[in-house]
Amino acid sequence: MAITIKVLSAGAVKRGVSQIAAEFERTTGTRVAVEFSTAPEVRKRVTAGEIADVIVAPPAVMDDIAKQGKILADTRAFLGRSRMGIVVHADSSPPDLGSTAAFKKFLEGATAVVYNRASSGLYAAKLMEKLGLAAALGSRTVVVDTGGAIMEYVGGHAPGAVGLAQISEVMVLIDKGCAVKLAAPLPDEIQNVTSYDAAATASSATQEAARALARALTSQEAKKVFAATGIS
């Protein structure tokens, strides 16, 4: 009987993790069940005692989990980086977003500015404060739970809603037919880069398989898969 290992992963790397997990299943016969959530929720679930065999999360979250003795330190490795982008309705005209000034002007004219409660959303909230947009936007700021919810909101509120999200998550929803497009990455001077690590857990009952999957997720071959999904 095939064993099953569970992966608890941040959502921004969903496409790559799903593809590598499927290939791991095919080549090893080990079943892989993957659950995706926001990075803060991953921290909360693991801290509360939820059992998983492999965890994929940003370094700050992984550090917290490591301090609790819940990962195998020698399996932890860098998976990739995600950058943030600006999301508009699929029928919108391409805006000029090559500078911070142009970005700020564009948001000032938006009917809604949408971000989530994950790591990228926390950054977006701080960015709105830094650029003096928080007060100006007021009730036009919409905070949702997930990256997918950002795209669903923008796709359903044409033409003026704007989303701030991980580029990798935007690509997932576009693939699913959501009526949005990536207008541009955030300008370089205000870009936010989120890194992700993978590690096997100390609580895994199938540590050999968990170690193997953690290696697969952080291998050179995996980096090619992730690059095609917007994770570099």
Care to describe what's here?
This protein is an alpha/beta fold. It has two domains: 4-80 and 195-227, D-Maltodextrin-Binding Protein, domain 2 (3-Layer(aba) Sandwich), CATH 3.40.190; 82-190, Periplasmic binding protein-like II (D-Maltodextrin-Binding Protein, domain 2, 3-Layer(aba) Sandwich). The chain is built from ten helices and nine strands. Strands 1, 2, 3, 4, 5, 6, 7, 8 and 9 form a nine-stranded mixed sheet that branches.
* CATH class placement of the largest domain: Alpha Beta
- Work out the strand percent: 25-35%
| Counted beta strands | 9
Low-pLDDT segments: none
Please identify, by name, the CATH architecture of the largest domain. Answer: 3-Layer(aba) Sandwich
User: Under CATH, the topology of the largest domain is which?
Assistant: D-Maltodextrin-Binding Protein, domain 2
Biggest pleated-sheet summary: 9 strands, mixed
Oligomerization status of the protein chains: single chain
Could you tell me how far the N terminus lies from the C terminus, measured between alpha carbons in angstroms?
Answer: 36 Å
Mean pLDDT: 94
Give the helix level as a range of percent: 40-55%
Helical run tally: 10
> Can you tell me the overall shape?
elongated
Return the domain count: 2
CATH superfamily of the largest domain: Periplasmic binding protein-like II
